[in-house]
Specification:
single chain, mainly alpha, Lysozyme, 2 domains, two-stranded antiparallel ribbon, 4 strands
Length: 281
């Protein structure tokens, strides 16, 4: 099995993200599993340059008309990379075993084998994938915001109104409304009206529409962003949330990114982009 105690997950998440920025999402578990095999589980042998080189092997220029949304890249299949690395049958099998070993590993100390959190993520994923196909908002960002805004679906607003994103009922909203307390600024409480939905799925659909219909999201680069870090920053820049820390610094994108890395939500982006490739071939 993979040497989990010697594995620095953040190192691999970062290597995958460095390669993915402005392109498509590389799967960090593939990098960790391959290094585990080629360095015989001695992760101290992994260097920045070797791992960055490996990550780059999972992306290639795409000059065909089958694009993943508007990306000029496509993701390379794991088996193709293993062939290029001249791995034999045993090594390939070990890579797949190691990937399975990493099933519940993220940046959190405890593993991700929590039934209720995994169920929540899986429940939202199909609709989040639709929002990606339709608008280009990454599933990792959609689901992370839902987790953050609704406290894993346990907030009063989400249990009473299925409102996962804290979207307010402005004048454009013709549906049902609910009055709630809000605490956007450090230690300040305000009462506001929020949108009511029939289901979590409807809440996700409306979130996609909300971003699309508010010009400021396009202007801040939300829809140009092809990577979760860039997209989370663009959403903060557009003023989605004014949440601040005690020093008055905006911390919304940081919170969104932390949840993505803790829960491996960027691997949902990878999944979506791989499927997008397959669906269009």
């Amino acid at each position: 099995h993979i040497n989990l105690s010697g594995l620095n997950t953040k190192f691999y998440i970062q290597a995958a993200d460095n390669a993915s920025k402005g392109k498509l999402q590389v799967n960090w578990k593939y990098l960790a599993a391959i290094d585990g095999v080629r360095y015989k589980n001695d992760f101290s042998k992994a260097t920045n340059s070797n791992t960055n080189e490996l990550a780059a092997m999972f992306l290639e220029k795409n000059s065909t008309s089958n694009k993943v949304r508007n990306s000029n890249y496509r993701l390379v299949d794991l088996d193709v990379v293993l062939e290029k690395l001249s791995f034999d049958k045993k090594q390939k099998e070990r890579v797949y075993t190691y990937i399975e070993d990493l099933k519940y590993t993220g940046t959190l100390k405890n593993n991700l084998n929590n039934v209720s959190t995994q169920q929540f993520i899986q429940e939202l994923y199909p609709e989040a994938a639709e929002i990606y196909n339709k608008y280009g908002v990454l599933p990792s960002v959609t689901i992370s915001q839902a987790i953050l805004e609704s406290g894993w679906g346990k907030s009063e607003l989400s249990t009473k109104a299925n409102n996962l994103f804290g979207i307010k009922a402005d004048t454009s909203w013709k549906g049902k409304k609910i009055k709630m307390n809000t605490s956007e600024y450090y230690n300040q409480k305000i009462v506001d009206e929020f949108r009511v939905y029939n289901s979590k799925q409807e809440s996700i659909r409306d979130y996609g529409e909300f971003l699309k219909n508010n010009k400021r999201y396009k202007q801040s680069g939300v829809f140009q962003a092809t990577h979760y870090i860039d997209q989370a920053n663009a959403i903060e820049k557009a003023g989605y949330s004014t949440v601040e820390n005690s020093k008055g610094q905006q911390i919304y994108s940081e919170l969104v990114i932390d949840i993505i890395q803790e829960q491996n939500l960027q691997l949902l982006d990878f999944q979506c982009e791989m499927n997008y490739n397959k669906n269009s071939q």
